[in-house]
Amino acid sequence: MDQFIQLILAGLATGAIYALAAIGFTLVWQTSQTINFAQGEFVMLPAILVLMAVKFLNAPLPVAVLLATGMFLLIFGLGFKTYLVDPMAKHGVLPLAIATMALSILMKEGAKDGFSAEAQQFPSLVPEGVVRLFGATLSLRDIAIFLVAVVAILALQFFVTRTRTGRMMQATAQNPTVAKILGIPTERMILLTFAINAGLAVLASFLISPVYLAKFSNGEVIGTAAFIAAIVGGFNQVRGALVGGFIVGLVDNLAAAYVSSAYRAAVPLALLVLVILFKPEGLLGSKEERTV
Amino acid sequence: MNVHATPMPVTPPATVLKVEGLKKHFGGIKAVDGVSFHVNEGEILGIIGPNGCGKSTLFNCILGQLQPTEGAVELDGEAITGLFPAELNRRGVSRTFQLLQVFPNLTVRENLILAGQEHQGSMMSRLFGPKDAGLSAEAEKMIGFFNLGHLAETKAGGLSYGQQKLLDAAMAFMAGPRLVLLDEPAGGVNLTMLASLKDRLEAINREQGATFVVIEHNMDFVMSLCTRVIVMAEGKVLATGTPAEIRANPAVIEAYLGH
Amino acid sequence: MSRASIFSRIDANLATILIGAAILWFAPAGLKSYGLYVISFWLVMSIAAMGLNLTLGYAGLKSLAQAAFLGIGAYATALITAKGGIAGATWSWPLAFVVSGTLTFLAGVVLGFPALRVKFHYLAFVTLAFATLMFLIFRNEQWLTGGVYGFSNIPRPTLFGAKLNNDLAFFRFVLIVSVLLSLAMWWMLRSPWGRAFQALRENPLRAASLGVNLRNYTLLAFAIGSAYGGLAGALYAPLVEFIDPAPFAVSASFVLLLTVVVGGQGYFLGPFLGAAFSYVLPEVLRFTGGLYLLVYAAMVLILLLISPQGIIGIVEKFRERRRQKDAQDQRDASKAMLGA
What we know:
The complex is a heterotrimer.
Chain A: H1 2-32, H2 39-57, H3 61-89, H4 93-114, E1 130-133, E2 136-139, H5 140-162, H6 164-174, H7 176-181, H8 186-212, H9 218-233, H10 238-258, H11 266-278
Antiparallel strand pairs in A: 1-2
Helix pairs in contact in A: 1-5, 1-8, 1-9, 1-10, 2-3, 2-4, 2-8, 2-9, 3-4, 3-8, 5-6, 5-8, 6-8, 9-10, 9-11
Chain B: E1 15-26, E2 29-40, E3 44-48, H1 55-62, E4 70-75, E5 78-79, H2 85-90, E6 93-95, H3 108-117, H4 123-128, H5 136-145, H6 161-173, E7 179-183, H7 191-208, E8 211-215, H8 219-225, E9 228-233, E10 236-241, H9 243-248, H10 250-257
Parallel strand pairs in B: 3-8, 3-9, 6-7, 7-8
Antiparallel strand pairs in B: 1-2, 1-4, 4-5, 9-10
Helix pairs in contact in B: 3-5, 3-6
Chain C: H1 10-26, H2 33-58, H3 66-81, H4 88-117, H5 120-140, H6 142-145, E1 158-159, E2 162-163, H7 167-190, H8 192-202, H9 204-209, H10 214-240, H11 250-263, H12 270-284, H13 292-306, H14 310-339
Antiparallel strand pairs in C: 1-2
Helix pairs in contact in C: 1-7, 2-7, 2-10, 2-11, 2-12, 3-4, 3-5, 3-10, 4-10, 8-10, 11-12, 11-14
């Protein structure tokens, strides 16, 4: 039982990180119909950039963090939208999706060749240590991850539903044409979602890298998990991505403990297939009326 | 040319399509609320009504795009209620769409052959047989009939709007259908093209005895093309009659012009 | 999006297959075995890409599992032909070829069913799940697949009593099979089936209203496309002579998808160009050392930014510009005549 509670709590911590990546993925999909196959690499890269700044520029850690964050937001928020998504969007979903696939290879190989093929230590932002709760042993790190991610998501939710800009952003996501007619600066709102996506990726990167180490191939696992979370939750919903993230995190951790390690990777995918077959609109998605 | 010049048959005409007590409710909204009518062989039946009267929903129920809540649809005395569009088409029900629906990357000829090929032979013969499925002559005839001769090798996406409407209509006749349902064929078509479309529809009705049901907003078009007209309002049939009778019906005038 | 109708230029495609085959038959006379290996590899991956092009480019169904089908074919072939062969040396490879095609065809049918229920990108994720599962099976079921060590010493086929040990002979054998499969694909795409597949991609609702049986054609497109992956696998195993799970991983399916799009999806010759880009270019880029994937990905990105319709899209753009220029010249000429 203790082990079970421990697994659940660890699962929620992992899930919170998946949720961060899945929310960004969903936001970008909503506003610009971009299926970002590089989403996992988006989470992988910021930590690597920090380590590169420390290694090559001899920057102190806080400076390196700021530098990496700024650079990442610029290149993978603004640059990604302006130089990749905008020119390709008019040619349909597929060429753009393929382009993001190529981008994911580029980022992965770039991190490998430009920095290191080995997993690197990434400094933890919270001290090591454990607390005991309901007889289970919890690492402080897991708790911190969970809290930071949840606060970030709540802040985002507050921004989207309670602020003027946030509501304009949501209107743009739901119906760009109508939003434009209403005088909402849709272009700026779309750019904002890309910036938020990049920001969430940075946060997820800094949270997960102390646990799993910073490695060029980290994106594969995180990217797949984010996809699954987004679809399981309901592709068009930020709320869905949140719930989906936690579910995938839990399933992942429970599978690691109770399913043979050989087939552990297949368990979340099985969940995905079941959802697609039996509730394709996602657990929180609403069914669209069949229209002619 | 006038349709009424067709000699009236001595025996009463066979019923091609029969709709009996058809209802389609979306939650509390009764889009179609108990509609019954029939279509005789060789007839051009018009269905008109103000926006939101349920005529498009009625069409979609007959054509298998929507499942009716209640009621029955018969084709030549056989129940076809709720059959899928592809199956209906194989049984001889063709349709055109309100919004343009041709295949833009296929040529005009390819569009026409596609419209007829699934009615020829088996799956296997469509793989191993001739690439035109034996339909080149028929397609050629249709191209000539709809005055698309100079455009046969042009991709449909490159045609003008009116030309695409003509092609759309031509495709509906490729399989030698028993019944053709035309969904707002005149929408967005300029007057010259409209006259030519009407002329072609009349000719095909006269020469092949094809049976049509037409949904249309353009009153002049319906009144001059159709032999009989049904007026719908609020999901129900308000009136049925010849164009002249409909024009004189006070209930219809009220439904259109309001109080 | 302007995509040339496959039907208007189909005979140019046939001519290209036949002329290309003739050139390839005689060309490699001077090549060493490494060169022959690279061209053979290109042909094999072209077949796999051709299958995916049917599924994706013509029928518009997104599959992320083509490398898994390649793997099923390769493992089936390895199992049937290794250690003297199940049906004796002579019949083992033909048997393996048939079994590879049949297995992947059936897997394609099963996997195609979700395509009937779910829309657009969801199908991609179902196939992704399948690809992951197959990779795990290749890696974990040691008793069957040899696990991470895989199979080595997969024999070259024996045909008409002659073992194709000679690299040139085996290359020509691969060429013959590739040409036959290309011709079969060419025939199918110009038949009414090809038209129906294209209709499926462009407007399924309208296609159904014309009597096109969406279920049959969707499953066929998926199954035949997958079978080409399996058949390519039956050539892959004896070509490489050693197989392990790595080349059939999910990322390999991604690269096959890139290959089809980079070549030009929905164009008959697209897969051959794409495969040259994805599988021959890396050999050329060997001088870059470990950087070749980086260079490759960058080139894909730049290419797609220039031409989302892939390499053939560039050719088409030039043709279109040429046509417009010719038309303009004609107009100018007639204007000049009127003015005179």
